[in-house]
Amino acid sequence: MVNTRNENVRKILQEAHQIMEEKYTPKIRQKNNEDFILENQIFSIVCEDIKISPSACAYEMSIRFKQTVDREDVIKIWKSRRLGNPKIRENVMAWVNEIVKYFGGAVNGDKKSFDKFEEARNRLIKDGYKKHDDPYRLLLLAIYHKYPEIDLFDDLSKIFQFGGIFSKYFFYDFADTISDVYGFVSLRNKKQNNKQNNKLSAAELEKRVIQLENMHKSTNDMLEELQEEFAVQLEESKVNEMTDFFGKLNSEKYGCLLDELLVIRKGVRKLRKENYELPIELSGVLIMVDKLTKFVQDNHIDPIMKIDDIKEVNLTDVEFCHYEGSPFDDAKETKIVRVVSPGWMYRDKEIQISRPRVKENI
Description:
Layout: H1 7-28, H2 34-48, H3 54-64, H4 71-80, H5 86-107, H6 111-121, H7 134-146, H8 156-159, H9 164-182, H10 190-193, H11 203-249, H12 257-273, H13 283-298, E1 301-303, E2 310-314, H14 315-318, E3 322-324, E4 334-341, E5 344-346, E6 351-354, E7 357-360
Helix pairs in contact: 1-9, 2-3, 2-7, 3-4, 5-6, 5-7, 7-9, 9-11, 12-13
């Protein structure tokens, strides 16, 4: 627990709030943050239960935040933020929880806790996790969930509007504020603090100069990363438009066109293998089918499963499918199913366009 009655703690929280108002609030007012809010609401639920299923997460979203999302929406968001793999989520949350564990002591002024906090936050997430900023969104949300008493100025409502870059740099600013108030040396500003050796008479002035240098560098770094994030978001927007297009092609409204292409090609290959001579009237249709198939392949849209495959599945397996059949008694029970629709994904980004449909083989 953070002692918010302590003078130094209140000073830290006041300065962190001032940074929020001066550096971040004007920027979040300039943009539509609805996507970030939705994602952060999902992340806040994951912070509380790392093993939560997509369906349970969607249910919690409806109860807590009155958001209408289904498990496909949750899966899509997890994957788009590189958190689709349960093992990766566990590794990220292990890193988050270790930092959160020492955060309270660090804010309260305990030097040992601060040192462990610094060590933990500079440690890489294990298993070769690719570097990006979304774990900092989970980290901030986890900190404010663990220590709700620190939200004296309603900064959490603004944090819910943060993307990865703002989350990372606000966390850096918060950690630097702890370091400055207690005079702790953080790994982030250690080199700059070493400059104080020969000017003890001007220690406070030099300390302020160092703080301003850090703030200037932090702001420049943040602006550069925001530019990179904008380019990434632009690319993601293009990908989303393409996957939405192919998702509509395989919807029931348009006759599950991608599935039908597979069925037709499979049927034609079978007939040709049996030396069946197809009517000349069908040649134009078959040419069109081949061209549509090539168009799908050229856009790196691949089937996830094979139509008519027989599979043994459990409850976890069908979580990511449309399942038709009798209910599972428990998570360990397995059933034999036949693949009715293969499901489709965008190969380059591993984005699911439509889920496979499986039917219990009775």
